[in-house]
Amino acid sequence: MLNSLKAFAAVLSLAMLVAPAPVWASYLENESARKFTDKVVAEHGFDRAWVEQLLAQAERKQSILDAISRPAERTLEWKGYRKIFIQESRIEQGVEFWRTHRKTLERAEKQYGVPANIIVAIIGVETRYGRHMGSYRVLDSLATLGFDYPKRGKFFSRQLEEYLLMTREQGLDPLELTGSYAGAMGFGQFIPSSYRSFAVDFDGDGVADIINNPVDAIGSVANYFNKHKWRTGELVALTAAVTDNHDKSVFEAGLKPKWTVSELAGKGVTAYSKLDGNADASAMLLVGDEGEEYWLGLHNFYVITRYNHSSMYAMAVYQLSQLVEQRFGQ
Known about the structure:
This protein is of the alpha+beta class. The protein has helices at about 1-20, 30-45, 50-55, 60-70, 70-75, 80-85, 90-100, 100-110, 115-125, 140-150, 155-170, 190-200, 215-225, 260-265, 300-305, 310-330, and strands spanning about 135, 180, 235-240, 260, 270, 280-290, 290-295.
């Protein structure tokens, strides 16, 4: 009897190994996707059959769900995060990009008031100056996150809606575009809503193309910061010192400046350089290779976080901008 049970178990295990994996149902069978289809047909006049055909070709990607659950901004300290974006090769590539597009960057700085080094650093952090713009189909990314990621499903289904509008406006095939796991595209990695709101035709050819055209990408990044109220000529961030009895709660107040420089000094956090005491600032504590680092983030630092809501991201952009500018000027 025991041997018979063992034999049955072995056969069952073998059957489980060779049995085909469950077939994933298309998004045509997803309730959220059906509601999405109803919405874009009713509100934007899309052809229902076309939308359904598109969603039938969208693929759920587990790798996308895995990636969004462990972003570097949440899993690394500054010392590890910095190493991802601040390397000799990226600095040299930034100098090369600046030299190649010098006139375009000068024009963007003059028109939008955003420094060339910041524009260069954004494109460098996002895609290594166009070298790594993402390999996921944007349709797959936005469908997966819009319909299979309840935590932010509303946001990403809205981005899928923006994507359909964007591709219709730009005359693009929604099945062909690729980008990040979150559906960001082009040199500056714009999500669809940002593409529609901030992408500009900076070379005058009648098309705002941030995916293939670095000139348009440069102008679009500058326009993005301009629209988010970049202040020309103002500082971004400064290192700071703390007193022994400083108020530690200031480092947990979020990204938006909550205090003035003078108020932070009263709480024991003071910039090494002299600043206008009435300037708005946030306090940051970062863990670097040599231990704790204290910083003040000013208004323009906060503007960088509008691109990616992370103080470490903004610091990587700021430091890369400084290093590329120094090398460019040599």
